[in-house]
């Protein structure tokens, strides 16, 4: 007797098994696309930043979000979600709050816990379930102690919290990385001035703070000036080349006419100016000083210009890549940005064809709010942290790209 199942029934069973397995598959968090952002609204005025948690998942899941007290925490429970192997420090903006941890809660449920810097309330929470990927967004705003109203059943919500994970080893930093910091102006050139502050002093102090933070990461740092002295623009480039710089970062806090936009701005070399700048460099500098490792002595101006343009085909994308890393980190940390945060310019300190270079306007000293930030130790510490993250992240990305190119 033949007990073989009809083909149509076998297909139906296979489809049913496949659909059940798919339904039981846990949702995974896309850490790279998720983030915790801190809006600078109210920063520096005695209030904590507005926060938004964005969770990008492989599929939509039931969830709940509550704020509890003692200490103040945001708790997000997700059904059928798996965080195995995911590190909280890989979440963009993870250090905007004192601590984050996640893990299994009970069978079929996982939990995310954010320790908040003060009393908060949830202003909105929702899940977009449509393609390309489901996204949960939870917005929180700071409130006064009197307005703080945590979940009454906080004890129940806090049961079975994920155990704090052991602190991970710091991410490995690229070996041999050298960064040259260029505090603008100095000496008889104080730069922009407003409110009793000078641009030269502000950026020099900031550069020293940034140097300390970068050196703590094992990065070699050189500065074009370490005191109130004047350094010619072309010499700043030569100092960077002599130091074997992997990145040249010029720091400024300029002036804008009243009423113009403020906020941090990043400048990279404008390719449209390449021809003119190459001609100027070929005539004003010793040939051997134009490109490290390439002796242009005895070459005519046209050949020198062509070789510099060729070098820029490698360094220009790397400079632009750094600008993207930096704007991303600033946005995630709630640093106020100019309405055009990345711009091209023909500044002298960006002319080097063989070193990835950028000029960062930390803010505009003539803008009252920017000036308050530039002189606020808390804001400066945030900006230093952002730059360290951007520089190390960019360097790891450069190393990864270089390794792949070798293969």
Automatic annotation (TrEMBL):
Residues 237-392 form the MurNAc-LAA domain. GO terms for biological process: peptidoglycan catabolic process. InterPro entries: MurNAc-LAA_cat, N-acetylmuramoyl_amidase_3. One of its GO terms (molecular function) is N-acetylmuramoyl-L-alanine amidase activity. Its EC number is 3.5.1.28. It comes from the Bacteria. Keywords: Hydrolase, Signal. It holds the Pfam family Amidase_3. The keyword Hydrolase applies. GO terms for cellular component: outer membrane-bounded periplasmic space. It catalyses: Hydrolyzes the link between N-acetylmuramoyl residues and L-amino acid residues in certain cell-wall glycopeptides. Residues 1-23 form the signal peptide. Gene3D superfamilies: 2.60.40.3500, Zn-dependent exopeptidases. CDD domains: MurNAc-LAA. SUPFAM superfamilies: Zn-dependent exopeptidases. PANTHER family: N-ACETYLMURAMOYL-L-ALANINE AMIDASE, N-ACETYLMURAMOYL-L-ALANINE AMIDASE AMIC. This is N-acetylmuramoyl-L-alanine amidase. It comes from Paracoccus saliphilus. The lineage of its organism: Bacteria, Pseudomonadati, Pseudomonadota, Alphaproteobacteria, Rhodobacterales.
